[in-house]
Design brief:
Immunoglobulin-like; 877 residues; 28 helices; disordered N terminus; globular
Length: 877
C-alpha cells in the first residue's frame, strides 16, 4: 500500500506492551477462485492474565481487506458496533472470553508486493513474515500472539490439485463444480508470521527420515513438474540438516510431515513456516548443467537454515520484531556450524567474513547503521539486514568462544527447555548462557544495543632480556546515528604467537577478553621475538588498527598455521599495495607493482602442498567494496578499479607461463561431482582464468572460449562467460546469444545471464542493462529478475554505477520509484548503494544526493523506501 511519506509512524522498543487479549485458536476457511479469495476466520480470544487494565477493546490489524461480516460469539455486528479504518478493526465492550468471526475478500492476483497471500506464475502462496498475515485476514499480527491453527483450503482441483498448509493433513475430499478441499491442523502454537498455505499444480519428491527417537517423518519437496529432476540435492541437504541438529544440539523434528515448496516469485531466500517451508526456487533447484558450485552450497546453507529455525525461531520465537536477531542471528550461526561440518573447510569461515567485511561493516559505517537489537523502526522489513543476520551470528559465535563448546551447548539446552512454546527476548537467551556459564554477561549484552564496528588498536613490545612479550590493546566504538560516547565492549580476541618457522609458541591459541577501554597483556618465557597472529578465526567483528609491515604480512601469509589468518594477512597485504597504487593513479604517478607481490603470487600459485581451496582464496584480490570502505571518505572508484586492473594485468604478464601451466593442472576430468576436492580444483582454475583474462588479448580470448565450449558443468561455463562478457570482441556477443538460446526456458539460468551482463566490465554496461529491462525474459514484478539485473549493476558493477556523468545514480533512482509502486520491499533493498554517498568524492556526493532528494520529493512513497531515504541524512555533515 502506498501512503503519503509524511504519515509513517515510528515503532519504539521502549513502548512495548503485552496485548489486553490473546488469541489461542484460529480456524481459517480460505476459498480460492480466479477472481478473488474469500477468507473466513474464527478467532478464540481470552483476556490476557498479564494485563490488569480493562478497556474491553480488541484492535485487529488488517490491510487491503474487503470486510463483509463481523460476528461476535455468533452474533453479527452492525457496522456501528465496531470501528473500521484502512489498517485496523476495533471491537468494543468485550467479555473476558469470546470468539470473533470475520469474512473478508482479498485479491491475491493483484498482490505484486508478494506479502500475505499472492498469486504468481499460477501458484497461490503466502509470505507472512514480518507483517503479511494482516493482508489475509484481521488479526493481532505480532509475534508474541501464539495460537493453534486449523486451516481449510478450497480450490479448483484441475488448476490447483495440491493444497498445503502448516501441520498435519486431517481431512480432504471433493466438492461440487470440480473443486476440492484440504484441512490442515498444526498442533503447535505459532505466531501468524509463521502461517503458510499453497494452492498449485505441483509434483513432489518424497522421502522419509527416522528421528533419533525412532519416529518416521514424511519428507515432501514440491516443485513445478518440469523441475522435479533438480530436487535431489535439496532433499539430501534436508536429511543432513536433520541429522546434524540432532547430533549438535539434540533437537529432533516434531511433526509427522516436513514440506518444502519452491516458487520463482519470492521476496526472500526462504521462509521457515512451521512444517511448510516456502523457498525461492534458486535455493532448491540445482543440477550440474544448470547450477554452479556456489548454487549447490547455497542450497545446503539455506535448506539447513530454514530447518534449524524449527527450534531457533519456531518452537522458541521472538517476543517482538526488535528481537529479530534472537532467531536470525542464532540460526545463521547454526547454519554456519552446519556448513563447516559438512565441508570440513576453512573456506566457509572465510566466506562468512567476506560477507561481513564487504556488506555489514559498510552498513555499520553508514547512515543505516543500527544495533543488533534496534530500538526503533518505521518499517520492520527494512531490518532484515546483514547487521541482524551476520553480525547477529558473530555475537552468538563470541558467546560460543567465551563459554566453550560444552557450556554453550548446555546453555542452548536450557534455553530451549525453559522457553519452548514461548515468545522471548535476546536478554532471555543471554540469561540462559550466563546461568550455565557462571559468568556475568551484562557488559557483553552491549553487542545487542550499541551500533557500529569496534576498532581495536594494537601495539606490542618485546623485552629480549626478560623474555617478556607485552601486548597493548585499546578499543574505540565510533559514533553512529543516534548513538555517541559508547561504553567499552566485551571483545574476545583469539591470538597466537609464532616463532620464525611459523610454529605456535607455548601459549598456543589463547582467547583474551578485552573489556576495558585499554588493557595490557604480558606473556613470559617468550624466548624470541614472536610474530603476532591476532583475531584468529575472526573471533570478534572488529576492525584492527595494527601497523604491520608488508614483510610481516607476507610472513603470516606464508607461515601462519591458522589458515584463516593466512587469508586475512593476504587481504591486508594486497589492500596496502592497492591503496598505494590507487593514490598513484589519482596523483598521476607511474604505476609499478612491487616485485615481492609477484613473487608472493608465484609462490602461492606453484605451492603443491597448499590446500587448493585456500590457494584459490589467497589468489583473490580484495573486493572493490572493501577497498572503498578502507579509503573513505572521498573514495575514487575509478582509481581503485584502475589500480586493480593494473595488478591483474601485471601478474598475468609476468606469470604468463606459470598461470597457463597451473590452469591446465587443475582441469577436472570426467562428469561433474559436487565434492570438496573438485570444487577446490574448479575454484583454483577459474581464479587463474580471471588473471589470464586480465590481458584481454586474443590469446586470452582463445583460452576462455575453449573453456566455454568444452565445459560440462555450469560452474565452468559461467566462469568463462563472465570473463568473455568483459572483453570487447565478437566472441562475446556470439557466446551471450548462444547461452540465452540454450537456456531461455530456465528462469534461474537466465537470471545468471542477466547478472553477467549487468556486471560486465564494459563502458556501455548501463546501456546493456537498460536494453535488458525490455527483454521478454525480464519481469519487474519478479524479485529474482530485479536482483539479477538492477541489483547486480548497482551493487556489483561499482565502476560503471559510479560513472562520472552520474547516469548510474539516476538509473537507480528511476528504478526505485518504479519498483516502489510494485514491490516496496524490493525497492527499499536495491536503494542501498545511493545511501552510501558520504564515502565518495564531492562531485559524486552531490549527484547521489540529488537522486535521493528526487526520490524523497515523490508525493507517495512506501514506508519501506521512505524510512531508508530519511535515514540517509541528506544534509551535509
Amino acid at each position: 500500500m502506498l501512503m503519503d511519506n509524511t504519515t509513517h509512524a515510528t515503532t519504539y522498543l521502549k513502548n512495548y506492551t503485552v496485548t489486553e487479549y490473546t488469541i489461542t485458536d484460529v480456524q481459517l476457511d480460505v476459498n480460492i477462485t480466479e477472481e478473488a479469495t474469500t477468507v473466513i476466520a474464527v478467532l478464540t480470544c481470552h483476556k490476557n492474565p498479564q494485563v490488569t487494565t480493562n478497556t474491553g477493546q480488541l484492535v485487529l490489524n488488517g490491510e487491503n481487506l474487503q470486510l463483509q461480516h463481523v460476528l461476535l460469539d455468533g452474533k453479527q455486528l452492525a457496522n456501528t458496533e465496531y470501528t473500521l479504518t484502512a489498517e485496523t478493526l476495533t471491537l468494543r465492550n468485550l467479555p473476558a472470553s469470546f470468539t470473533v468471526q470475520t469474512t473478508v475478500i482479498i485479491k491475491p492476483q493483484e498482490n505484486t508486493a508478494l506479502s500475505g497471500l499472492y498469486k504468481a506464475n499460477k501458484i497461490f502462496c503466502t509470505q507472512c513474515e514480518a507483517e503479511g498475515f494482516r493482508r489475509i485476514t484481521y488479526y493481532l499480527d505480532r509475534p508474541d500472539v501464539m495460537a493453534k491453527f486449523t486451516v481449510t483450503i478450497h480450490a479448483d482441483k484441475r488448476l490447483y490439485p495440491v493444497l498445503l498448509a502448516n501441520g498435519n493433513l486431517i481431512a480432504h475430499g471433493s466438492e461440487s463444480d470440480a473443486r476440492h478441499y484440504a484441512t490442515w491442523q498444526d498442533p503447535f502454537k505459532k505466531p501468524a508470521y509463521l502461517f503458510a498455505m499453497v494452492a498449485a499444480d505441483l509434483v513432489a519428491l518424497y522421502d522419509t527420515y527416522v528421528t533419533m527417537s525412532g519416529r518416521l517423518v514424511s519428507l515432501q519437496l514440491y516443485v513445478e513438474r518440469e523441475n522435479i529432476d533438480q530436487t535431489a540435492h535439496a532433499m539430501a541437504a534436508l536429511k543432513k540438516a536433520m541429522a546434524w541438529d540432532e547430533l549438535a544440539y539434540g533437537r529432533e523434528y516434531d511433526l509427522d510431515i516436513y514440506m518444502i515448496v519452491a516458487v520463482n516469485d519470492f521476496n526472500m531466500g526462504a521462509m521457515e513456516n512451521k512444517g511448510l517451508n516456502i523457498f525461492n526456487s534458486r535455493y532448491i533447484l540445482v543440477s550440474p548443467t544448470t547450477a554452479t558450485d556456489q548454487d549447490y552450497a547455497g542450497v545446503d546453507m539455506v535448506v539447513g537454515h530454514e530447518y534449524f529455525h524449527n527450534w531457533s525461531g519456531n518452537r522458541v520465537t521472538c517476543r517482538d520484531w526488535f528481537q529479530l536477531s534472537l532467531k536470525e542471528g542464532f540460526t545463521v550461526f547454526r547454519e554456519q556450524q552446519f556448513t563447516q561440518y559438512i565441508t570440513k573447510s576453512i573456506m566457509n569461515r572465510i566466506g562468512d567474513v567476506k560477507l561481513l567485511l564487504t556488506h555489514q561493516f559498510a552498513e555499520d559505517s553508514g547512515p543505516l547503521a543500527h544495533p543488533v537489537r534496534p530500538d526503533a523502526y518505521v518499517e520492520i522489513n527494512n531490518f532484515y539486514t546483514t547487521t541482524i543476520y551476520e553480525k547477529g551470528a558473530e555475537v552468538i559465535r563470541m558467546l560460543h568462544t567465551l563459554l566453550g563448546a560444552d557450556k554453550f551447548r548446555a546453555g542452548t539446552d536450557l534455553y530451549f527447555a525453559r522457553y519452548d512454546g514461548q515468545a522471548v527476548t535476546t536478554d532471555d537467551f543471554v540469561a540462559a548462557m550466563q546461568e550455565v556459564a557462571g559468568i556475568n554477561l551484562t557488559q557483553f549484552k552491549l553487542w545487542y544495543t550499541q551500533a557500529g564496528t569496534p576498532e581495536v588498536s594494537v601495539t606490542e613490545q618485546y623485552d629480549a632480556t626478560a623474555q617478556k612479550y607485552t601486548l597493548n590493546l585499546q578499543q574505540f566504538i565510533p559514533d553512529t546515528p543516534g548513538q555517541t560516547n559508547k561504553l567499552p565492549m566485551h571483545i574476545p580476541i583469539r591470538i597466537g604467537l609464532l616463532d620464525e618457522s611459523g610454529n605456535d609458541m607455548p601459549i598456543g591459541t589463547t582467547v583474551i577478553s578485552l573489556v576495558d577501554k585499554q588493557q595490557q597483556y604480558v606473556f613470559n618465557n617468550i624466548k624470541t621475538k614472536p610474530h603476532l597472529s591476532i583475531l584468529r578465526g575472526f573471533s570478534a567483528p572488529v576492525k584492527l588498527k595494527y601497523v604491520v609491515s608488508d614483510n610481516d604480512l607476507a610472513f603470516l601469509l606464508q607461515k601462519d598455521n591458522d589458515d584463516f589468518n593466512r587469508w586475512y594477512a593476504a587481504q591486508n597485504l594486497y589492500s596496502n599495495v592497492l591503496i598505494d597504487l590507487t593514490r598513484r593513479v589519482i596523483s598521476g604517478a607511474k604505476l609499478e607493482l612491487p616485485n615481492f607481490i609477484v613473487e608472493t603470487f608465484a609462490e602461492i600459485l606453484l605451492n603443491k602442498d597448499l590446500d587448493l581451496a585456500l590457494k584459490a582464496e589467497l589468489l583473490i584480490l580484495p573486493s572493490m567494496s572493501l577497498l572503498i570502505d578502507k579509503m573513505q571518505p572521498a573514495a575514487d572508484p575509478l582509481a581503485i578499479y584502475t589500480a586493480k586492473k593494473f595488478v591483474i594485468s601485471t601478474i598475468a604478464d609476468k606469470l604468463h607461463k606459470e598461470l597457463l601451466t597451473m590452469y591446465d593442472a587443475y582441469t577436472v576430468f570426467g562428469t561433474y561431482a559436487y565434492n570438496p576436492e573438485n570444487m577446490a580444483r574448479r575454484s583454483c582454475r577459474n581464479t587463474i582464468l580471471h588473471y589470464i583474462a586480465g590481458t584481454k588479448s586474443n590469446a586470452a580470448v582463445s583460452v576462455i572460449l575453449e573453456q566455454y565450449n568444452k565445459a560440462n558443468n555450469m560452474t565452468d561455463t559461467i566462469a568463462a562467460l563472465t570473463e568473455l562478457a568483459s572483453i570487447n570482441c565478437n566472441e562475446r556477443i556470439e557466446a551471450l546469444i548462444d547461452f540465452y538460446n540454450d537456456w531461455s526456458n530456465n528462469p534461474l539460468v537466465i537470471n545468471k545471464w542477466f547478472a553477467i551482463q549487468a556486471l560486465a566490465d564494459s563502458e556501455n554496461a548501463l546501456d546493456q542493462v537498460k536494453a535488458l529491462l525490455k527483454h521478454k525474459a525480464f519481469d519487474i514484478k519478479n524479485p529474482n529478475n530485479v536482483r539479477a539485473l538492477i541489483g547486480s549493476f548497482c551493487s556489483g558493477n561499482i565502476v560503471n554505477f559510479h560513472a562520472v556523468n552520474g547516469d548510474g545514480y539516476k538509473f537507480l533512482a528511476d528504478m526505485v520509484l518504479e519498483l516502489d509502486a510494485v514491490n516496496p520491499q524490493v525497492a527499499a533493498r536495491i536503494l542501498t548503494p545511493l545511501t552510501q554517498w558520504r564515502k565518495f568524492s564531492v562531485g559524486s556526493q552531490e549527484m547521489m544526493r540529488t537522486q535521493l532528494q528526487r526520490i524523497q520529493k515523490s508525493r507517495q512513497l512506501s514506508a519501506d523506501v521512505s524510512e531508508i531515504i530519511n535515514k540517509s541524512s541528506l544534509a551535509r555533515n
